[in-house]
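A reminder from the course coordinator: this example appears on the midterm review sheet, so study it carefully.

Given structure:
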């Protein structure tokens, strides 16, 4: 990397848009990814944004810390990895468990296919189902899409600390994976993608779609029952 370009990431401010006045090194990842999808501006600014997007995408932002110190810029905010204060609080989790109704027998904690609702969430869910059943498409088309949907997206983005434009709602995990796989825009003809024969058929289908439409090579890793290290060995050979 050009050291002079790295210096500019710390000193050059964004001249327009919602983050006008913020140094390029502090631009949010989703904002940089938007430019990567839609196209970077021409000239030096576009080159700096592309460089910062590449640094952020590969988790290399800490490389800029010495330059931040040199130029008196605030250090990069790093989220704490400390254990949450209630992680080992049995009384806390007992109170959480009391919010759910459970059938006698084994407690299935899987959330990949089914997920339990607490009593409060279930009551709210049923209330909204009844409301939608009464108001129907008039509410959904005229109010939800431009009102509540925007606010829900904003609150969720704030909760997970991302730009609202980075949040996409899907009906289920399968639809989400299909969207991610089919719309990943960095693949070029001749690139290789790896999948395991343990994947769901919908994932395999989306990957094979990439081969037909994007011209990538799909490598399917066979799974042979046996030692748990075998899948890792298979993957290593393909890489």
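Designed residues:
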């Amino acid at each position: 990397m050009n050291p002079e370009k790295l210096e500019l990431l710390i000193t050059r401010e964004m001249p327009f848009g919602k983050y006008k006045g913020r140094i390029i090194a502090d631009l949010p990842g989703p904002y940089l990814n938007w430019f990567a999808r839609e196209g970077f501006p021409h000239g030096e600014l576009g080159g700096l944004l592309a460089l910062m997007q590449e640094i952020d995408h590969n988790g290399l932002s800490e490389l800029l810390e010495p330059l931040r110190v040199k130029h008196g810029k605030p250090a990069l905010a790093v989220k704490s990895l400390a254990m949450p204060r209630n992680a080992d609080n049995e009384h806390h989790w007992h109170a959480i468990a009391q919010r759910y109704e459970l059938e006698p027998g084994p407690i299935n904690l899987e959330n990949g296919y089914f997920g339990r609702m607490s009593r409060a969430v279930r009551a709210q869910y049923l209330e909204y189902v009844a409301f939608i059943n009464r108001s129907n498409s008039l509410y959904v088309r005229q109010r939800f899409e431009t009102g509540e949907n925007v606010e829900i997206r904003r609150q969720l983005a704030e909760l997970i600390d991302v730009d609202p434009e980075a949040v996409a709602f899907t009906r289920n995990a399968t639809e989400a994976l299909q969207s991610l796989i089919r719309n990943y825009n960095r693949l070029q003809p001749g690139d290789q993608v790896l999948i395991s024969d343990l994947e769901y058929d919908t994932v395999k289908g989306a990957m094979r779609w990439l081969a037909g439409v994007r011209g990538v090579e799909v490598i399917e890793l066979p799974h042979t029952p046996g030692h748990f290290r075998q899948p890792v060995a298979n993957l290593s050979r393909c890489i």
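The first strand starts at residue 192 and ends at 196. The radius of gyration is 23 Å.
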